[in-house]
Amino acid sequence: MDIRAMLTVILVMAPFGGAILCIVLGSSKAIRSAIVLATGAVLIVSALMLAPLVPFRLSAATFLGVDLHRIIQVADVALLLIILYYGFKHRQLTVIVLAALQLGLTIYLEGFLVKGPLPVERIFCDHLSLMMVLIISIVGSIICFQAIPYMENHEHHYHVMRSRQPRFFFVMLLFLGGMNGLVLFDDLVFMYFFFEMTTLCSFLLIGHDRTTIATRNALRALWMNSVGGAAFILGIIAAYHETGSLGLQKILTPWLAGSGVYLLALALLCLAAFVKAAQFPFQSWLLGAMVAPTPVSALLHSSTMVKVGVYMALRLAPGFTGTLLSQSVAVFGAFSFLAGAALAVGQSNGKKVLAYSTISNLGLIFACTGLNTAESMIAAMLLLAFHAVVKAMLFLSVGAIEQHIESRDIEDMRGLYAVMPLTALITVSGVIMMIMPPFGVLLSKWMAMEAAAQNLYVIVMVALGSALTVIYWARWAGTLMSDPFAGRFRPEHQPALTWLALGPLCIGSALLSVGAPWLYLRMIAPMMMGPYSPAYAFKAGGLENAYGTFAILPLSVVATLGLVVAAVALKRAFRAKIVSPYLSGLQTGEPSMFRGPMNQSVKAEAKNYYLDTIFGEARLTDWVNLGGGILLTLILGGAL
Amino acid sequence: MQGIKRFINQLRAKSPWLLHFDCGSCNGCDIEILACLTPVYDVERFGIIHVGNPFHADLLLTSGTVNHRNKKVLANLYSQMPSPKIVVAIGACGLSGGIFREAYNVVGGIDKVIPVDVYVPGCPPKPEAIIDGVVLGLGKLQAPQERNGERKEA
Amino acid sequence: MTETAVLILCGLIAGPVVGGLVSGLDRILTARMQSRIGPPLLQPFFDVVKLLAKEPLVVNVWQAFCAYCYIAAASIALVLFFLQSDLLLIFFVQAVGAVFLVVGALSSTSPYSQIGAHRELLQILSYEPLLVLVVVGFYLETGSFKLTDIYAWPHPMLLKLPFLFIVLGYALTIKLRKSPFDLSTCHHAHQELVKGLLTDYSGPFLALTEIGHWFEVVLMLGVCTLFWATSWIGMAVLLAVTYFLEVLVDNVTSRMNWRWMLSYVWGVGLTLSLVNLIWLHQG
Ligand code: SF4
């Protein structure tokens, strides 16, 4: 068997195997942990082994002697029936209707529309797929590792009688396999199956705690994603109708651009992508998903599941270059970027800030996809990679913080440095990596801005949005450090697996940022074919094109120097005289206390500005939903 | 090294930022202090800036009797000033408690709480006298060996 | 290589020297407008040296860290400007400094620092988009974000981007913390703010923030020169007029609140820049 085929099989099937083992043998903690760790290790190794082999296409006709298409058909119908079952179980009419609709459309497609033998070159792995595989396998596995101590704590905290962790890890691993499948297959029907699988997994994971609110939010995620699923299958039907093919690469041959139904098919697929990526007005499922245990939020909503949306859009982009559809996707994405950032400013709930920031960043990726130039596509792919890593790290730190202080409110994290110094520092460095040069997220934002400068609507929204982004991150970082005086640095106690997840993610994202030029040269430049061309040259340690330079390496060196100087200053500051902050001369000597009326000690408190009269959820949500809805209509209408 | 030290001391005298604290005065002295800071006297000529915050101040201009309630505040403010720092006590009250000296709540004089470098008598002193006191204080910034609790009268 | 080294050195020296002189000039001009004589021209240098020589007091050790990061970022931004790098990149680097200054202030629990820091964040929120749009204006006119290309452009930019120059004026006023936008820290707001953002920075750390601010002032003035980059005289006149207007505005207006700032600056600034950008786009 070809090594590439073998790796593909491992990447998709190993998590399924691990998942099944989890549910069969996983009632003991040690075995369960071993299974999860082993599966993660296998995934990481295979993903890394896959790296030098791309790009390739392979035929996949049969699996264990059975026609692969048939297997997927059956599995697909089974999956939809399961969703239908949950719809009936929870008496959710929307879910039932949408699942039934999808079932009908699937049967129509498979039974009546598709004729003749299908081409079997179904596996397609280029650098974009590889990037996704790496993210899913490495970041996803790390998140699963951290979930082991987290879930232990979690169940301990909620006094769960019978552990439901086998089921939890079953779904988590299943999910990883599904994601890998989605990005490795080229056949739309296969992609649709895996798409639906991630929908079902997210439903199960969000509802894991079985509280009323968890169930409600899980159902919301289910029906919204089913809208995406329905759009997906409609898109497949339209695409097949027009091109007579189910292979995505075949469909995207540029000669078809311009035909109405063809563009409609792409627009429908984009709609599915928007739903998966929780763009406005579908954001509420992602926000609701924040009730789930934090590793779930990290897995679903930072690094992997929502990235499916942008992955699809990036795949489809060459099909609609230079159309109105492309332009409206750009405006829609920019709008999401702005609206997500604005809503994040109004939030004091840390996880919600992360959620809105995810929506916002994905919006920027969509905007870049819609701009559809070589520069913007590069920006989109870089942002995809960097955001996945940094955001996963932030989610995991917030999870660790949340379990420690039992709150996810930013106000309660005030002065966290005094309580959990190392986690606070990791969180702050995550924040720094989100908004500051020379780190990768900002590098890609810079590319995005330079690529968007031609498009007035997009650049104005991106400019406003990026200013808002700075606000909510800086505020959070400052709040974590807000402490009267920080004494000697003593890392707090955390489970080893937590450090094992946070440490590599933190160091890895910093190194990845320094390695951005090579990331570009190795992973992204080879993708720039067809309508795109490799737009940047690696010169003088930075990326450069005709109108812009981003000196990554020199800046990294200088930034490191600055950091060293500042660190020395920090060390010397420990020797300086420590005084109370200015409290009008009334400080009592205890931290933040001042002498109030009747000689009582009163705590001096200042809360953060959240500006909720302007950026509050209650005020903005309806408007952004309206805006998102209008733009979506524009996208679908513009396609016709 | 000596030269640099002298140079820096020179500059200290050229840039005295002052903090004004009313430690329980009748407000007579404070009106005069604030009068010094008006454009009429234009003390910014000498680099004097009126700051609101002990962290930034070199000179503490303080008036009033000092009572048991606010002596702690006075000490706190003084402790938050980075050295070298100069304290100028203004008015009869600041010097000794003045006409309130015998009152039950009065500590009586700034130097009961913190070391004072310059005393400016008067009830209240004229702005010119206050400026003169500040200038004396600047001399001490310039020649730090003269400090250490040695008292001078303006 | 030597040329690069010279330019780097120029940037590192020009920041504090020119910035300090500008600040001294500013204080003299202000004094004259208030019919005073004002301090000597070199007063800002006296102040900074004095502060550097004071005893270091800290309320939170991270404040020292942040002060150094601030000045590092501010100086790197100016050096990048002298090296004629990418304009957008320079703004991002400059923003790093602004963020560290805020984080340093937030690390103190004093309510005055906290409020000042939040107001500073709102100031950043107000001016950042405007600066980005000004840069976009340069790009639409010259087709490049690189300063080399922008300086090489044969026509004075002011004629093509008059509204964007006004927009830059707004950003400049906020960045220089001049009235009516001196919300986050200023010498005159003892009652409400003490010294806002800078309340708990003291001695050497305060000096660092001051020098960092000079770097930023020089950087902003450098951006102003881009509007008349074709002749030295044009540059000088433009700078002189702009800075004089800044001081004048500072003296004739009073401090406003952040709501007004945000709505006014975004409203007027965005409208003006949009009009100008649409011209460029169509022209
Ligand atoms: S010295 Fe005289 S003017 Fe000054 S506070 Fe005392 S009583 Fe008032």
- Helix count, DSSP H or I runs of 4 or more residues of chain A: 25
Q: Could you tell me the radius of gyration of chain A in angstroms?
A: 25 Å
Task: Determine the structural class of chain A based on helices, strands and strand pairing.
Answer: mainly alpha
**Ligands present:** iron/sulfur cluster
Task: Count the domains of chain B.
Answer: 1
Terminus-to-terminus distance of chain A: 45 Å
**Unreliable sequence segments of chain B:** 146-154
CATH topology of chain B: Rossmann fold
Number of strands of chain B: 6
Q: In total, how many beta strands of chain A?
A: 10
Instruction: Report the total helices of chain B.
Output: 5
Q: State the shape of chain A.
A: globular
Question: What's the overall geometry of chain B?
Answer: globular
Sheet with most strands: strand arrangement of chain B? 2-1-3-4-5-6
Descriptive labels:
heterotrimer; A: 640 residues; mainly alpha; three-stranded antiparallel β-sheet; two-stranded antiparallel sheet; C: 283 residues; 12 helices; 1% strand; binds iron/sulfur cluster
Give an overview of the whole structure:
The complex is a heterotrimer of chains A (640), B (154) and C (283). Chain A has 640 residues and is mainly alpha-helical. Chain A has a domain at 322-536 and 623-640. Helices cover 70% and strands 4% of the residues of chain A. Chain A has helices at 3-25, 29-50, 68-89, 93-113, 127-157, 165-184, 188-206, 212-243, 248-251, 260-276, 284-288, 294-303, 305-316, 324-345, 350-371, 374-405, 416-419, 421-435, 440-452, 456-481, 496-514, 516-524, 552-573, 612-615, 617-639; strands at 56-58, 62-63, 66-67, 123-125, 537-539, 542-545, 548-550, 577-578, 593-595, 601-603. Chain A has a three-stranded antiparallel β-sheet. Chain B has 154 residues and is α/β, with parallel strands linked by helices. In chain B, strands 2-1-3-4-5-6 form a six-stranded parallel β-sheet. Chain B has one domain (2-144): 3-Layer(aba) Sandwich (Rossmann fold). Helices cover 35% and strands 16% of the residues of chain B. The longest helix of chain B has 16 residues, at 127-142. In chain B, helix 5 links the parallel strand 5 and strand 6 (152-153). Chain C has one domain (2-282). Chain C is built from twelve helices and one strand; from the N terminus they run ααβαααααααααα. Chain C is globular, with a radius of gyration of 18 Å. The termini of chain C are far apart. The A-B interface holds A 579-580, 582, 584-587, 595 and B 21, 53-55, 72-74, 76-77, 79-80. The structure holds iron/sulfur cluster. Iron/sulfur cluster (SF4) is lined by residues 25-26, 28-29, 63-64, 91-93, 98-99, 123-124 of chain B. Iron/sulfur cluster binds at residues 25-26, 28-29, 63-64, 91-93, 98-99, 123-124 of chain B.
